[in-house]
Amino acid sequence: MKDLPSMLLSMLEEEFNFLMNKKDQIKIETKIRNIRFIGELCKFNIAPSGLVFSCLKACLDDFSHHNIDVACNLLETCGRFLYLSQGTTVRMSNMLEILRRLKNVKNLDPHHSTLVENAYYLCKPPERSARVSKVRPPLHQYIRKLLFSDLDKTSVQHVLRQLRKLPWAECEEYLVKCFLKVHKGKYSQVHLIALLTAGLSHYHDDFHVAVVDEVLEEIRVGLELNDYAMQQRQLAHMRFLGELYNYEHIDSSVIFDTLYLITVFGHGTLEQDLLDPPEDFFRIRMIVTLLQTCGHYFDRGSSKRKLDRFLLHFQRYILNKGPLPLDVEFDVQDMFAELRPNMTRYSSPELLASALAELEENEKTKQSESAASDASCKSSANRPDKNGRGHGEVADSESYSGSRSIYHDGSEDGDSLYEENSDDRSGNGVVDDDDAMPSGSDEEERVQVRHKVVQVDPKEQEDFDRELRALLQESLESRKLEPRVKSTLNMTVPMKIVEGSKDSRATERESGEELTAEENGNAGGGSEVKVCVRVLVKKGHKQQTRQMLIPGDCSLVQSTKQQEAALLEEKQNIKQKILEYNEREEEEFNASAFQTGFWGQGGSSAGGSIGSAGRGSWDGSNRGGRGRQRYYIAGGIYHGYGRGR
């Protein structure tokens, strides 16, 4: 369709001339759409360059209002193309020079002035030297590839193994430098850098120390410079510092020192307005980032009290800043909802000052009480008790044993402490600050003071040991005089032993069966009655039974017979009560059957039972869940009713 481009170009040119002659200052979208269509057709060599230059010249002749926007859109669309084309370079350069002169001559508003500059430099960029790429050795390039390209959740173990294979003496300094550039990677993978730091610290003890020192130094440098270009880097460093705490490379005191440093650095100096202007809220973002990373571990013990105290100071810092922007306010609200949902947020400095004063007063009271308790403990330690020992010795021994139970859970080494604390932190395999008792914390200082070793007098220790031995000997003698509990006499012989016994007579005769003189002719030949018992013995790894005949008048047999007689009498009493109960139920049923006219049916049932009495069997009829049963006792028939099965 060779005629289509020409028809389309003629229509676009007519529309452009119509819009230019109309001088309508409302339909600017139509003008921009028309001129950009012409510019795109020029890049595809459909619209001739003469048409484009004629449109551009028409706009430059009346360089005002919408014509400025139209000319700039035309240059942004195909100006670079015409400037680099071989046949139109000179003409486009002249047009651009005219555009630059018009901008300098006319008093354009800032919007149009920016449009003209962008269009001019887009077509003809300023001359500058080529950027020189930094040449790195292959080993450094490989390290950067591992940390910034390959590192993710699935490849962290592989990256750790590759880093361990590097020549450590040559690469340690560069590794620390790369670990500090966490802002060049993904923000969601900062914890993986901390995980690599933890993995490498197992093989190189001083590596994580160097990383922590450099991170703290970078945070301080960022506070000193307060450069807007460094804000992304500072947020990444705050997240990295929190993750290092999660992996137990720093103590909670380092976190709180950093938090207080952010709130007070530069205040009270001549450079306060430069370091922390009133309208700058970036330090609040830094604090929120650090607390959202590791603040959920400060939920018990001294770290909880430290965080509560800091949050009050943090509220004072926020109130001094004034009203917060909405995004910062939402971040602060989310942080409080996550860490301390029940904490009160004060709206006035007076209420906050009273809360801080009350907190300081409570702390002073606790300190005075603890000092008084320590003084009383020291005074009571010098007063001997009735055994001649000082109370301090007992307290010291109890505290010492308590310290072992707290730290080691009854074991001599510290393995159980690490295993127990490693389960307390969810997800990331980290240990809680208060359970781990890191060095420098308030809990450890208090425990060290409480568990100090007291010198014991050797003579007093010898007296105590002698009294303890006498007490143990007395307890042992009293245990000997206590009556022993009789063991079970009649034990069931295991079926495995009975089946495997070679003595057939032993399998036929039960333990405890009496033997007369005729049955036991070889046992003595007299009229003495003896009892056959089985003794369970162990030969090697196998258990066996042996028969043994004991006299019937011995205490063992007599006590056993008394127990069996008592058990039999109890069974007979229970049986008699059951029979009486069944007889009473039968009489009640017969009376009710006679009154309702069912006596014949009951008599036939009784007759049938009498006829079957001589055969020594029993039967019963089930009527509505109640079965009539006949029992044969002492040659007679007993009719009873019980629940049918």
From TrEMBL:
One of its GO terms (biological process) is nuclear-transcribed mRNA catabolic process, nonsense-mediated decay. It comes from the Eukaryota. Residues 1-126, 141-342 form the MIF4G domain. Residues 383-394, 499-512 have a biased composition (Basic and acidic residues). InterPro entries: ARM-type_fold, MIF4G-like_typ-3, Nmd2/UPF2, Upf2/Nmd2_C. Residues 557-588 form a coiled coil. Keywords: Coiled coil. Residues 368-381 have a biased composition (Low complexity). Residues 360-462, 499-524, 605-628 are annotated as: Disordered. Pfam families: MIF4G, Upf2. Gene3D superfamilies: 1.25.40.180. Residues 412-422, 431-445 have a biased composition (Acidic residues). This is MIF4G domain-containing protein. It comes from Aegilops tauschii subsp. strangulata (Goatgrass).
